[in-house]
Amino acid sequence: MTQQPKLPYIECNGVIVTDSDFCIKHLVKEGVSNDLDVNLTPEQKVDGRAWQAYLEEKIYPCVVKQRWLDEPNYTNIVNTMLRSVVWPVRSVVGWNLSRKIYHALWAQGTARHSDEEIESLMQDAVSDMVVKSQGKRYFHGTETFTTTDIVVYSFLSSGLLTTFDINWNRLVLSQITLVKYCLHMTESLFPEYEPLLKKLRETESNLEFTSPKL
């Protein structure tokens, strides 16, 4: 049993494993999941690990910072996640969570950035993903999705139906390449997610309508 206090974590066959990278490796080792990267070249595997680290360690803290420290995201997430907690206890619990997250992000470094710097980092990430996925069904140009696709898709789509990732959602949904990517992944993996599919299809249609015609 690991003693590392790090999220996310899983418990599999009586073993607790922390950190997404180790979780994935453990699930493959135990035969719970197929190795999605078995056909990747060594270079593609290195590239995939770099993207995973970039999104999880650099960009995700930026999203968390805007989610818990900036308005109106903060009010929206407190009212959503703590809706079962009566007022005014909800505001106290939300404030305590916000303070803990602030101190964690300050120690990690993200909270030391200005709002403009955070926005710039997020814009760069979206632009980088557009460049990487342009003209491809999957991130590495493969015939099937890989671990990198799962990471990227999860990161792009997890908050699209929420009201507490306003800036991140705006950036993602402004790029037709990423909208098409999320739509294809959702149709392939989660065809029952009708609200998300509806939003992605409507956004795709609007972007195609407003795109300049050559």
Instruction: Count all strands and give the number.
Output: 2
Quick one: biggest sheet?
A: 2 strands, antiparallel
Question: Mean pLDDT, as a whole number?
Answer: 91
Structural class category:
mainly alpha
Classify the helix fraction into a percent range: 55-70%
From the coordinates shown, what is the CATH architecture of the largest domain? Up-down Bundle
What is the spatial order of strands in the main beta sheet? 1-2
Beta-strand percent range:
under 5%
Q: How many domain regions?
A: 2
Query: How many alpha or pi helices?
Result: 9
Task: Identify the overall geometry.
Answer: globular
Low-confidence stretches: none
CATH topology of the largest domain: Glutathione S-transferase Yfyf (Class Pi), Chain A, domain 2
User: Rg, please?
Assistant: 19 Å
Distance between the termini: 59 Å
The string of secondary-structure elements, in order, is EEHHHHHHHHH
- The top-level CATH class of the largest domain is Mainly Alpha
Explain how this protein is built.
GO terms for molecular function: transferase activity. Residues 4-72 form the Thioredoxin-like fold domain. This is Glutathione S-transferase. Keywords: Transferase. The relative contact order is 0.10. The protein has helices at 20-29, 42-69, 73-81, 89-108, 115-133, 147-157, 166-173, 176-189, 194-210, and strands spanning 9-12, 15-18. With 214 residues, the chain is mainly alpha-helical. The mean pLDDT is 91. It has 2 domains: 1-33, no CATH class; 34-210, Glutathione S-transferase Yfyf (Class Pi), Chain A, domain 2, CATH 1.20.1050. The chain has a two-stranded antiparallel sheet. The protein is globular, with a radius of gyration of 19 Å.
